[in-house]
Amino acid sequence: MMSQGYPDTNTSMPDPESFPDIRSGIPIGNAVLGGEWTWIQTGAGAADSPAGLDGTAGWLPAPVPGTVASALRAAGRWDDSAPPPLHLHDHWYRVRFAGRGRQVLRFNGLATVAEAWLNGKLVLGVQHMFAAHEVEVDLDGDNLLYLCFRALHPWLRKRHGAVRWKPRMIVPPTLRTVRTTLLGHMPGWCPPVHAVGPWRSVELLDPASDDILHGVRADMSAQMPEGHGVVSLRLHFPGAAPASGSFEATDGEGCRHPGTLSRIDRHTLSGTLRVERPKPWWPHTHGEPHLYRVDATVDGRAIECGRAGFRTVSLDGASASASSGPSRLSEPFALCINGERLFCRGACISSIDLPGLADTDEASRYWLTLARNGGMNMVRISGVTCYPGEAFYRVCDELGLLVWQDFMFANFDYGSIGPGVGLTDDFQREVTGWLTSTRAHPSVAVLCGGSEAEQQAAMLGTSRGEWKQPLFEELIPGLVAAHRPDVVYVSNSPTGGAWPFQPDSGVCHYYGVGAYERPLTDARLAQVRFASECLAFANVPGDRTLTEHGLLLPLHSPRWKATVPRDAGAPWDFEDVRDHYLRALYDVDPPRLRYEQPQRYLMLSRAVTAEVMTEVFSEWRRVGSGCSGGLIWQLQDLTPGAGWGIVDACGRPKSAWHALRQVWQPVQVLITDEGLNGLHLHVLNEMPQPRSLLLVLRCLRDGAMVVAEARHSLRLPARGSERIEASALLDRFFDFTYAYRFGPPTHDVVLATLLAGDSGEPLSQAVYLPDRRATALKAPGLRAQLEQVGDEWWLTVSAERFARWVHIEDVAYQASENWFHLAPGSSRRVRLVHERKGAAQAVTVPSGEIYAVNADHPLGYDG
C-alpha cells in the first residue's frame, strides 16, 4: 500500500517479470516519443488516476526530457534563490501521440516514485530514478500518456527499517529506501532543488517500423589485450535484426579497420574487429586522447555508432585487461594508464545543471573544457550526486579527461537491504544498466562502489566488522568484473587503513589542511596516498559575480553567510576555516579586516586559498612524494557566493582555479621548503617527448635587487623528473629559507623559472617567500598598457618590483590568465575575453582594475 492519501495501484500493476529485457547501449536511431508535453502540479494524492484530473486547469508546456524545475524555469516561474519544495506535491505530465499495435514504451529515467498511465490504464509503477524501464503496450491510434510523480516526502514517511547508523548530512534519512539523487537533500552546501520528472528521454519502440534504424541501440567496447586493439559492437533492434552487416573503425588519419556483423539472436547483430598497433588514448596531460570513429552498414544504411579509444588501466603497474578482470584496490593506490603511473589531479563535479539535470553537449563541453584548461586530467562524480548523461562521457573522451565514477550510493547503511525489501534487484538493474551503457568510453578509469559509507559507519560508532557491506564488496564488483573488466574498482571513497578514512592508506578524503585547520606541513605528515576529495574552502568569487548577485557588501549579512558551505551539525563553517589560514599565514585579524577594509579582506581571502592549494599540490607532486593524486572538492558552485567551487556559479574561474592551473602543468617546476636542508626544486615532464630545459633561480631583496642567481641546464626524458637542491646551484652558503637566522634576512623572494632550452620560452614559475605576511613586501609599482589587435583586446601588466598574486577585475571581460606572480622588470601580456558575443562585444571596451597583494591600491585601466 502507498502512504496515506495515495491510491492503491498495486492491484492493476503489470507483473514486472512480463517486462521485456532492457536493451543496453547508446541510442542511435531516433525513437523519441513525439508530441507536445504539458505539466501540472496537484496536492499529494489529490488524483488517484488521470480521471481525477478532469477539468483541472493550469497545464503548462514542459520540456521532456526534463524536470519540473526546468518546466518552471521555461515558464519564468523558477527562482534559484528560493526553490519551491517540489517533493510535497504530485506532478503530472501528459502527451498525446499517434500509434497503433503492439509497441514498447521505454522510460530512460523517471524521478522518482512514478506511474505511467496509457489510455486510462496503469502500465508501470517505479521507485527508481537511475534505471531504464520498458513496458509492452497495445496502442489504438490516438493515445494519451500520463506520467505521475508522487510527492516523495509523504511517501517516505511510511518507510521504515532497522539501520545501524543514520548520517546527519542527508535529510530525510529514509532516502536510503528509494533510488533517487541526494542532490537537494544535503543542507549546508546544496540548495533544496528537488529532482522530479522525466529527467531522461521517453521512447516509443515499434518492432514493425519500416525504418531499419528506428530505435537501434549500439553497445560498443574497446580493449587492448597484448597491445592489439579489439572493438566489439552489438546493435540491438526493436524488431527483427537483419541477417548480417559490416562495420569499421577509422583513426584520425583515415586508416580503416573492417569487421563483420552477424545475427546472434532475433534482435541483435554482433561482431568484433582488430586494430593492429593502435594509437592509444591518453589523458591530455600525458599524450593525445586518440579516438577511432566506428561506423556500421546494415541493409545499405550507414549507422554512426560513436567513438572508441584504446588504453589499459591498472593499479601501480599491475596489468588490467579483459581476461584478468578489473584491478582492485592495492597499497599504495596509484593509477597507471597504458602502463605509465600518473599523478591524477582534478575536481569533483556536483551537477552541470542542478535544476534540469540536462544532458547536453553544450553544457558538458563548457564545464569540462574549464576543467581541462585548468590543468585537470581527472574528474570525479561523487555518490551524493547523479549519473551524468552520455554527452558528459563523450566530451571527457574527446578532451582527454579521466573519470572517477562513484555509483549513486552514499553514507547510508545498505547492509540490511536485501530481497525482503525489494531493492537488491533494483541495485543490480541500476549498476548493470550504467555499466553496459558506458563501456565504450575510454575516459572511465575508476569505478567506486559509493561515497563515505564506510567512513560513516566508523565515525558513527559501529563495530569494525560492520564497516564493509555486501553491496560494495560482492554485488557491485561482481557486476563490474562481468561488464567492465578494463577499469579499476574501489569499494568506497574513502577506504583503506586501520580507519577507512586514513590518509596514509588506500583512498582518503583529505581535509587536514582545510576543515581540520592543520598546518601546511600536514600535507606531508599525513602521507596522503590518493585524495579523492580534498581542500574544500569557501572560495570567494570575483567582484563582478558578487556585484551581479547583490553579495558584495555587507560581508557579515545573513545573505552572504547563506552561501558559505558548512558541515551538518558543525558549529563552524568553511569561511571560519579560510579565516584561520588568513590569520596563520598572512598575519591579519580577519574580523577586523572584514569590517574596516572589506575589499582587502576579499582580496586576501582569494589569495590565501590560491596559496594553500599551490603549497599542498607542490608537496604532493614533488619528486619522491608518495601521493599519486588529489581531487578538489569541488569544481563549481551550485549557487552564487563563497562556495566550495573553484569556478563560480556563473562559470567564472576563481583565484584557486588559476593557481591550480599553474601548479598542475605537465611540464613544471615546483619549490618545497625542506627546513635546514634549504629549498628543493622539482622539475617534472609528464609528456611523451623528452625536453631540454633551462632552470633559472633568483633571490631578490626588496622584491627587486638580485642577491643570488643560478642557471642550470637539464634534459628530462619522457615522463621524467629531477630533484635539485637549491644550495647545490651556488658556490657559497645562502640561507634560502632564513632557517639559520644569522642576522637580518638577505632576501624576501625566491623565484624559480623554467624555460624551454631551445627557444627560451617561459614554461613554469614557482615562488617561495621566507615571510608570508600580507604586509611583508614593498609595493610592486604596477604598470599597464591596453591595446586592441583586430577584434581582440590585450592587457600588458608590468612591475618594477616583485608583484604577489596579480589579478585583473574587469566589468565585462575575463582575463585569460589571472592570479599570477610577476617578477621585477618583467611583464605579462593577457588576452581579455568578452563573456558575450555579437553586438554587445562590439560596443563594450575593457575597463577595470589590476590588483596585487602587496600593492597599496589598484591600478585602473580603460579602453
What does this entry show, briefly?
This protein is 17% helix and 31% strand. The protein is α+β, with helices and mostly antiparallel strands. The chain folds into 5 domains: 10-205, Galactose-binding domain-like (Jelly Rolls), CATH 2.60.120.260; 217-308, Immunoglobulin-like; 366-628 and 637-644, TIM Barrel; 667-768, Immunoglobulins (Immunoglobulin-like), CATH 2.60.40.10; 782-862, Immunoglobulins (Immunoglobulin-like, Sandwich), CATH 2.60.40.10.
How does this model look, in words?
By secondary structure, the protein is an alpha+beta fold. It has five domains: 10-205, Galactose-binding domain-like (Jelly Rolls, Sandwich); 217-308, Immunoglobulins (Immunoglobulin-like); 366-628 and 637-644, TIM Barrel (Alpha-Beta Barrel); 667-768, Immunoglobulins (Immunoglobulin-like), CATH 2.60.40.10; 782-862, Immunoglobulins (Immunoglobulin-like, Sandwich), CATH 2.60.40.10. A nine-stranded parallel β-sheet has the order 17-24-23-22-21-20-27-26-25, with helices on one face. Strands 1-9-10-13-12-11-14-15 form an eight-stranded antiparallel β-sheet. Helix 3 runs parallel beside helix 4 and helix 12 (590-596) packs across helix 13. It is globular and about 90 Å long. The termini are far apart. Residues 267-311 form the Glycoside hydrolase family 2 immunoglobulin-like beta-sandwich domain. This is beta-mannosidase.
